[in-house]
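[Automated response] Your request has been received and processed.

Submitted sequence:
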Amino acid sequence: MTDVTSAKTARRPHHWRRDLVELAAMFTAVAVADAIANMVGHGPDGPFLLIASAVVLIATAAFHTWWARRHSHAPPALTSDTAGGAQVAGATELAARGGELFETSLWRMRTTVRDTPGSLAALCTALARHRVDILTLQTHPLAEGTVDEFLLRAPTSLQAQQLTGEISAAGGSSTWIERADAHDLVDTPTRVLGLATRTALDAAELPLALRQLLGRCTIHSLPAVSLSGRPTGETPPVEGVLEETVMRLRDPNGGAITVERPYLPFTPTEFARARALVELDARLGPRVPRSEDILTLPEGNEITVRRADQGDVPAARAMHDRCSDRTLSLRYHGPIGDADRYLNHLLSPRFGRTLAVQTTSGKLVALGHLLWDGDETEVALLVEDAWQRRGIGAELLGRLVDLAVEAGCESVYAVTQSSNTGMVAAMRGLGLPLDFQIEEGTLVITARLDATAVRSRARFEQAER
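Generated structure:
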């Protein structure tokens, strides 16, 4: 990132005529002071003259104080109500300039300019004419020209079309603009370091980190081998491939990570940052946080809820063997003989997050999946027959929704059959707005998430039995 700072003001040239004027003024002041001193010391009205001078000075100071308070140019003080409403949804704030109080909004804007002296200054001048503050600026050098990315605070009355028109008139091209929020106020190095830390702690964070790094985009993880064991041919070269609005990176677990952003081409700088995150993930190897929660079921049995990965594939296959055909068909919506083939994919941290439930003896009895599906997020549950109707599914679903909210997902959806009353009840127990779609016997339930609202979810004591 390139930081832009203001240049120091040049000093004015020194002229000898100004020195002569200052010297003459000093001589005149000395002559006047000597005349006043002789008049006060030797004249009969000297004391009265001193008293009158003091009164005039006091009156002048009092008048100046009254005038300054009456015609102050200081911005009006914000009340507690105003200060509380300064930072609201949509990044609306209050700003004061020249005694005028007005609402402002945050915008993210990107435009391409010629790589010539003065091109950036022309953009800044155009923004200043409309009282737009530049909060941050990044430059992305290209082979021809430069992409400038701004975070702006502009008056709410200024529309996006008007702002885009002013930038185009100032020499900007391929201008893109969207609303920003308070999270965008974090500078780029801090945000990148935070994403790198999250990726280092959890391999499942890589797709989410790439999405937050590159903005609104679609990320697909494509395996190197299909479920039938055939190569898919989706492995890109080590250095990756950048094709304007699409970048393809080699997945350390095999296959490819494809990032698409149709509305805005990627820059070489963004491509290099994405490659650095993928390389960090490759060097650290497989890793999943090992935190565990021990919970007590209504009948008194203890279970452990933890993150799962591909090391749990043998235990998951053993659970499949204990599940009935109906339970497997409700979960996988296809031939139950192929259920074991899905486990390597489902338990890979590259495709989402998985929660496992195991008993005190270490036996796996339930799995809950949160799967990244491009711009959408799917939730899925599988509970062994002997452990159903004990609240395990509701607990797993609530935890998966918590993970989705933490990841910044706007919604989650579950695909099941209309006869799967347990899954329908678990989704309703979330206490979230739900949308239902039925097509050819398949039921899709979408829950809209709100990270700021207090979400009531069923606990074990309230779960269906």
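Summary generated for your ticket: The chain has three domains: 89-184, 188-284, 292-448. The radius of gyration is 34 Å.
If you did not submit this request, please reply to this message.
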